[in-house]
C-alpha cells in the first residue's frame, strides 16, 4: 500500500514549519496574531477550498489546501509558544482517533457496508465520552448545514419521519404558521416561524437526497450569473443599472434564463 503513494515530504513540511516560526518571531503582523484574531481567515480559507472543489479546479485546490495547511501550522506554532500542545500532539491524536474509529480496518471487527461503518462510528464517539449524539456539531457551521447535521444525527437513533409525504405535510404546516406570523405584529414571532419553516424544508431535503447547503449555494451562484448578465447588457446599451427600470432588468433576466449552453 505504501508504494502507491509519494514519499512523505518531511523536509518540505519542516521548512514550512520553520518559515512560520520565523514569521512569528520577526514579522510584526504575524507576531501579534492570536487563535481568535485569525479565526475568520481560517473559515475563509476553508470556503475557498470548497469553492475549488465545486469548480473541480485541481490546480486551485492545491493552492487553497496550502493556505489551509498554513493556518493549521500557524495555530500549532502559537500553541507551542505557550506550551499548550505541539504538532506531534495533534498528529498523534488524529492518528489514534482514526485507528480507534476504524476497528474494521485496524482490528478484527467486521462490517457489511458503509452504512454500518457510519453507525459504528457514532457508537464509538459515544463510548469516547460524549453525552449526546448531537455533541460535535459545531455552532459555527452554516445554519442549513448545521440543521441537516442535527437532523441526521437524530435520525440515526430512530427519531425520524417514516414517510416523505408526512415530512412535506410538516413543511406545509410550518408555511401556514409563518403566514399567520407575517400577518401579525411580532418580529420575534416571524423570525421563529421562518426558522421553523426553513428547518422543515431542510428535513424534506434530506428525504429527497439533496444537500440543502449545496442546493442554496447553487441557486445563489445562478442568481449572480444572471444578475451579472443584466449588468453587462446594460453597459453594452450605455445604461447605468442604478437608473434602469425593473421592466428593463426583468426582460434581461428572462433573456439570461433562455440562454442556451449555460446552466442559468
Question: What is shown here, in short?
Answer:
The chain contains 12 helices and no strands. Helix 8 (143-155) packs across helix 10 (187-207). The protein has helices spanning 10-26, 28-31, 39-54, 58-81, 87-100, 103-106, 114-127, 143-155, 164-182, 187-207, 212-236, 246-258.
Write up this protein.
- The protein has helices spanning 10-26, 28-31, 39-54, 58-81, 87-100, 103-106, 114-127, 143-155, 164-182, 187-207, 212-236, 246-258.
- The radius of gyration is 25 Å and the shape is extended.
- The protein has 264 residues and is mainly α.
- The model has no long low-confidence stretch (mean pLDDT 93).
- The protein has three domains: 2-92, Helix Hairpins, CATH 1.10.287.1080; 161-210; 214-258.
| Shape-level CATH architecture of the largest domain | Orthogonal Bundle
CATH superfamily membership of the largest domain, which one?
Answer: MazG-like
> Which sheet architecture does the biggest sheet show?
none
The first-to-last residue Cα distance is 44 Å
User: What is the string of SSEs from the N terminus onward?
Assistant: HHHHHHHHHHHH
User: How large is the count of helical segments?
Assistant: 12
Mean pLDDT: 93
Residues in β-strands, percent: under 5%
Low-confidence stretches: none
CATH hierarchy, class of the largest domain: Mainly Alpha
Number of domains: 3
Structural class: mainly alpha
Number of strands: 0
What is CATH's topology name of the largest domain?
Helix Hairpins
**What is the 3D shape?**
extended
Helix content: 55-70%
Radius of gyration, in Å, reads 25 Å
Amino acid at each position: 500500500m505504501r508504494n502507491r503513494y509519494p514519499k512523505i515530504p518531511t523536509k518540505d513540511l519542516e521548512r514550512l514549519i520553520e518559515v512560520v516560526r520565523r514569521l512569528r518571531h520577526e514579522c510584526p503582523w504575524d507576531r501579534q496574531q492570536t487563535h481568535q484574531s485569525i479565526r475568520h481567515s481560517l473559515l475563509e480559507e476553508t470556503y475557498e477550498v470548497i469553492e475549488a472543489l465545486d469548480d473541480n479546479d485541481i490546480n486551485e485546490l492545491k493552492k487553497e489546501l496550502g493556505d489551509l495547511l498554513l493556518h493549521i501550522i500557524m495555530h500549532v506554532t502559537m500553541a507551542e509558544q505557550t506550551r499548550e500542545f505541539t504538532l506531534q500532539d495533534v498528529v498523534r491524536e488524529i492518528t489514534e482517533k482514526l485507528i480507534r474509529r476504524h476497528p474494521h480496518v485496524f482490528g478484527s471487527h467486521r462490517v457489511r457496508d458503509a452504512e454500518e461503518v457510519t453507525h459504528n462510528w457514532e457508537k464509538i464517539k459515544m463510548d469516547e465520552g460524549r453525552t449526546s449524539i448531537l455533541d460535535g456539531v459545531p455552532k459555527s457551521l452554516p445554519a442549513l448545514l448545521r440543521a441537516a447535521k442535527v437532523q441526521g444525527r437524530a435520525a440515526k437513533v430512530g427519531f425520524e419521519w417514516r414517510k416523505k409525504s408526512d415530512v412535506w405535510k410538516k413543511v406545509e404546516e410550518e408555511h401556514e404558521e409563518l403566514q399567520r406570523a407575517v400577518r401579525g405584529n411580532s418580529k420575534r414571532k416571524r423570525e421563529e416561524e421562518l426558522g421553523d419553516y426553513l428547518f422543515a424544508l431542510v428535513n424534506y431535503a434530506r428525504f429527497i437526497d439533496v444537500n440543502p447547503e449545496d442546493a442554496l449555494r447553487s441557486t445563489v451562484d445562478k442568481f449572480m450569473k444572471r444578475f451579472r448578465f443584466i449588468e453587462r447588457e446594460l453597459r453594452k446599451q450605455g445604461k447605468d443599472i442604478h437608473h434602469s427600470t425593473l421592466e428593463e432588468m426583468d426582460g434581461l433576466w428572462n433573456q439570461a434564463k433562455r440562454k442556451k449552453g449555460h446552466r442559468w
